[in-house]
Amino acid sequence: MIFGAKSVNLMGGAFVPIWDFAFYKNTNLFGGRDFGFQQPALLFRFLPVTFLIYYLVPFRFKNTVLFLASLFFYTWGEPKFFPVMLISIGVNYVAGLLMERYDQRPQLRRICFWLAFAITLGFLLFFKYTNFFVGNINALFGTSLPLLSSTEFHLPLGISFYTFQILAYTIDVYRRKIKVEHNLIDFGAFVVLFPQLIAGPIVLYPDISKEMKHRTITLAQVEEGVGLFIMGLGSKILLADTVGALWTEVQTLGFTNVSTPLAWMGLLAYTFQIYFDFSGYSLMAIGLGRMLGFYFPQNFNYPYISKSITEFWRRWHITLSSWFRDYVYIPLGGNRVKRSRQFFNIFVVWFLTGFWHGAAWNFIFWGLYFFVLLMIEKSFLLKHLEKSRVLSHIYLIFLVMLGWALFAISDLSTLGELFGRLFSLKGGIDWLYYLRDYAVMFLLCILASTPFFKIAAQTVGKNKVVRTVFLAGVLLVSISFMVDSTYSPFLYFNF
Q: How far apart are CA 180 and CA 229, in angstroms?
């Protein structure tokens, strides 16, 4: 087994036509939490139908098609939270119009802004953080306040991403940095644009405002978009899901029952899994956007080749980092203040960054962990890291892996068990068995996390025949894995 501990039938077993309803019976794309572009129902039904209609209609109807298709996409996946999204769209659309109308009346303008801001952010706070706050109040004061039912009030899909997009629009209108969008369809399409709705990248209104009004869709764009989508799908299915199976197995065995080398191997597997999962989704979204005529911003730029934590966060989840920079850090004063105030600003940013990722203490600790590391680098360490490329890279990977340990495990006692095993130096030969199964997979992940394949593609891919054959191969193998596999988690549905 060169691809991991789970066996994979590359032919997908017996031939199953993609139009066979039984093929989708057990898929959990719609009406469940395994919601993503790797699901057969989305890949073989929703996308072909949507793009066919989109390409056939005149341009004046394309945004309407996008809006309706995106609403259909979200409603089918999370129908009971459909009103939440509609209210968020409606409130901020109206708020924008009112702020324009009351441009010369600052007080009324301010009221409109803060009402829209409070309602939009309030939805996120309610669904994402209510149980966290209630649980901590109960633990602190010995009360027994009821928690929200996890079945009735789980986190709506994509709410963290589209909330940030809406807030950015409303803030920019209030600051008079952008013009108000008068067309409700165009505004709604911007908010719920299905390629990046559930996992980003976070797209700001200025990024696509011109394209919302006028865009060209060429064959070259479509070809490029298809290629990006296939590579993102392959990243998710072939790399993230396959290597992630090792992390899942180590968790199942229990951290106290594995050797120290196997614990580190499991954590390395998660390090690759979360990168290829999220970057894969981002690449799929960028590819779909390109096919629709939009140029979404880059979200990842090979973060694991970094030589410092500072550089890492310039390469990882770029759109989120940019959002916090533009809408939190700079308004607080940025780096145009005295040193102590600047450190406070960075602390606020990283506290909020951690809290944005999840309503649990481990996410807060994760954010503060990187805050401390960034402050150490900013104070004195960064200039020393630049002296040795090898040592700085080892330093980066080691600390990032520890950060992912904090990120991956919300139960603090289990987290303690993992850290205890990582540094206990417990011997054993269990890791040799898993190394045999995953050695090739680790090698592929290492190469794929560098520009190696990109450079190779630029060299070989100049030949259209070779490029087409390669992409077709990635797509076919991905589909085979998709059909055969029961393990395809969507790591970012909680965000």
A: 32
Q: Tokens 């004046």 appear where?
A: 60
pLDDT in tens, 343-387: 999 999 999 999 999 999 999 999 999 999 999 999 999 989 988
Is there a catalytic annotation at residue 357? yes
Based on C-alpha coordinates, what's the Rg of the chain?
A: 23
CA distance 180 to 489: 39
| pTM value > 0.85 | yes
Structure tokens at 39: 């699901």
Task: Look at residue 330 and tell me whether its pLDDT is greater than 60.
Answer: yes
Task: Note the Cα 342 to chain centre separation in Å.
Answer: 28
Output the CA angle 247-135-421, nearest 5 degrees: 30
Catalytic, out of 182, 214, 317, 357: 357
pLDDT digits (tens, 9 = 90+) for 33-76: 455 665 677 788 889 999 999 999 999 999 999 999 999 888 87
- Using the predicted structure, report yes or no on whether residue 26 has a pLDDT greater than 70: no
d(CA 235, CA 246): 16
CA distances from 341 to 83, 99, 321, 344 (A): 41, 32, 19, 5
Question: ω before 79 within 30° of 0 (cis)?
Answer: no
CB 478 within 8 A of CB 237: yes
State both tokens at 75.
């409603």
Domain ranges, ordered by start, for the chain: 40-216, 220-484
pLDDT tens for 268-277 read: 999 999 999 9
Alpha-carbon distance 333 to 347, whole Å?
Answer: 13
Contact yes or no for 296/201 (Cβ under 8 A): yes
Q: What percent of the chain has pLDDT over 70?
A: 89
What are the Cα distances from residue 84, in Å, to 121, 159, 316, 464, 492? 12, 9, 29, 46, 20
Q: How far apart are CA 39 and CA 310, in angstroms?
A: 35
* Count of alpha carbons within 13 angstroms of residue 35, beta-carbon side: 24
457, 320 Cβ separation under 8 angstroms: no
Kindly tell me if the per-residue pLDDT of 338 is higher than 50. Answer: yes
Across 1-36, b (16+ Cβ under 10 Å) vs e yields: eebbebebeeebeeeeeeeeeeebeebbbbeeeebb
Is the pLDDT at 22 greater than 70, yes or no?
Answer: no
Residue 185 CB burial class (10 angstroms; 0-12, 13-18, ≥19): middle
Measured between alpha carbons, how far is 200 from 162 in angstroms, rounded to an integer?
8
Q: What angle do CA 3, 5, 10 make, to 5 degrees?
A: 50
Q: Which burial class, exposed, middle or buried, applies to 78 when counting CB atoms under 10 A from its CB (0-12, 13-18, 19+)?
A: buried
Q: Are 412 and 135 spatial neighbours (Cβ–Cβ below 8 Å)?
A: no
DSSP structural state of residue 25: T
